[in-house]
Each structure stands twice: as structure tokens, then as C-alpha cells.
Amino acid sequence: MNMPSISPADPVQPGFIHTDDGVRLYYRDWGLGKPVVFLSSWSLNSDSWAYQMLALTERGYRCVAYDRRGHGRSSDPGIGFDFDRLADDLATLLDTLDLDGVALVGHSMSCGEIIRYLSRHGSRRVSRTVLVGTMTPTLSRTDDHPDGIDPAIFEAFRSDWLMRDFPAWLEDNIRPFMTADSSPGMMAWVKSMALQASMKALLDCHRATTSTDFRRELRDITVPTLLIHGDLDVSSPLGITGRKTAELMPNATLTVYEGAPHGLFLTHMDRFNRDLLTFLDA
Question: Which helix or strand (DSSP H or E) is residue 149 part of?
């Protein structure tokens, strides 16, 4: 007797889906109700959203989060770290789980994945988006973006730190990601997630994040969007990211947290969870 065939996008075991290029993506799926899908930042994984997922499931939401390819428990294929492929991975997740009316919540790099998903696959499944510490619209300085960051700074990080001693860089930069009163345990937890990521994924994703220009795409995104950004964010400086993204998106609202760093969803957890629930309940 022949076994039924399984398409690449079908779940083959609980907690994993397969993309059409054979990559296994780990996901977690908690609760029932309106779906909220969380996308983590560069180097982090679905664990990073645990405190938001707990808060929302207690309020009757269904919360899904997944590990980007090359991150956490997902496969490390060594390829596919451009925004088109990463957006297609998100599409695979939403299609496989057949999620509709979804709120997409992204942090840092993954805000670009959300924007590329909407421009590439449309908003049929999406009701609203939340972009936290976004790196859109574009980070690097160019002739038509003189306020950006010198690309040589990004290249120096990749050659001098990422490709030589990433753990040392994490040790030096975890505190600016958090706050002075963040616990040693919380900081150690965040660093442990980053150290699970594939170095190839980190390198290629960093190149994509620091070189991709989303300005044209942002103008066409009409779903209700909440942007939350800290004014002490050194990874995504507010003036060239959150503010400019809000100006370009026709249906976006920007909320600035005074004294908040890039990891504000952890350092300002109570306020962030309240704002997230208010936006989702609206």
C-alpha cells in the first residue's frame, strides 16, 4: 500500500514545517483565538518573544513564533538569507497553518521580512502589523540617503568582529541592547540565543539588512501599523529608521519610548505588552 505523498510545505512533525527548498523551520503555537505571528530579530529566535506570547495567550490570542532559517532550531542550509526568500518562508508558515486575519509582530531585521512579505505576497492573510525597533527604510548612506550610516562601518563589524570573535562582540554590546538595570540572567539568556545562530546566517542576514532599501515598498503598505521605537536605540537610530518609516507608510502610527534601547520589548516589557494588547484589541 502506497503512503500518501507530503508536499514540501506540509508539517511532517509537530513544531516543524518544510519550505519548498527543503528547509525545516521550527515553530511554536500557543493558545486559541485571533492569530498573532512573531518574527525575531537578527541572531535571536522565537524564544525571545516568550513574555509577549504568554501575556497574549492569557488574553485569548493564538500566538505563533518561528525560528528563521539558520537560527535557533531551524535548518542551516547556508543559503536563502535574502529578504525575498525569508518572506517566502513566512508565507509558507502562514499558508501551512492556514492563518487568516493575522497580526504580524516583528523586531529589528524581521520588520523588513514583514514589509517584503506584504509587497511580495499581499495582505490577504494580514490584518495589521507591529514593527519594533525597525531597521527600515534603509540603513546605509547613499547619494540619495545622506543621513544613513557609512557602509564601511558595517563592513568593519563583519570583518573585525563577526568573522573573528562574535562572542566577544556580544559581551561588549549586550548592555546597549538592554538597560543598566537588566539582570545578568536576562542578558545571559539573550546572548545564549544569539550564539545558537549559524555564522553564515548571521553574515548573510547582516549584509541583507544593512544594504536593502525598502522605501518604495513602504509607500504601498496600507494595513494598520504600529511602530514602537526607543529613543536610545543605537542599533536602529530613531531618526533614520522609525521616524522615516512612519513618514513613508500611509497607515502607520509611531510611538517613541523615552530612555528605551533596541531590546525594549524586554526592558520595557510591561508597557510594551500593554501597548501591543491595546493595538490588537482595537
Answer: none
The series of mean pLDDT values per 10 residues for the chain, 282 residues long, is 43 78 97 97 98 98 98 97 98 97 98 98 98 98 94 97 97 95 97 98 98 97 98 97 98 98 98 98 92
Q: Is 233 one of the catalytic residues?
A: yes
Catalytic residue among 233, 235, 236, 268: 233
- Tell me, yes or no, if 121 is annotated catalytic: no
DSSP code, position 158: I
CATH no. for residue 125? 3.40.50.1820
pLDDT for residue 6: 40
Give the count of domains, the chain: 1
The predicted model scores a pTM of: 0.94
Q: What are the phi and psi torsion angles at 124 (to 5°)? A: -55, -40
Q: What is the chain's alpha carbon radius of gyration, rounded to the nearest angstrom?
A: 18
Read out DSSP for 196-243? TS-HHHHHHHHHHHHH---HHHHTT--S-EEEEEETT-SSS-GGGTHH
Residue 250 lies in a domain: yes
User: How far is residue 87 CA from its own chain's centroid?
Assistant: 11
Is the Cβ–Cβ distance between 17 and 235 less than 8 Å? no
Note if the bond before 137 is cis, omega within 30 degrees: yes
- Residues 6 or more apart from 63 whose CB is under 8 A from it? 29, 30, 31, 35, 36, 38, 49, 52, 53, 56, 57
- Examine residue 63 and state whether it is found in any structural domain, yes or no: yes
Print the domain residue range for 176: 15-281
Whether 108 sits among the annotated catalytic residues: the reply is: yes
Average pLDDT, the chain: 95
| Sheet (strand 35-39) strand order | 16-18, 24-30, 62-66, 35-39, 102-107, 126-132, 225-230, 252-257
pLDDT at site 11 = 44
**Catalytic position from the list 41, 108, 110, 140:** 108
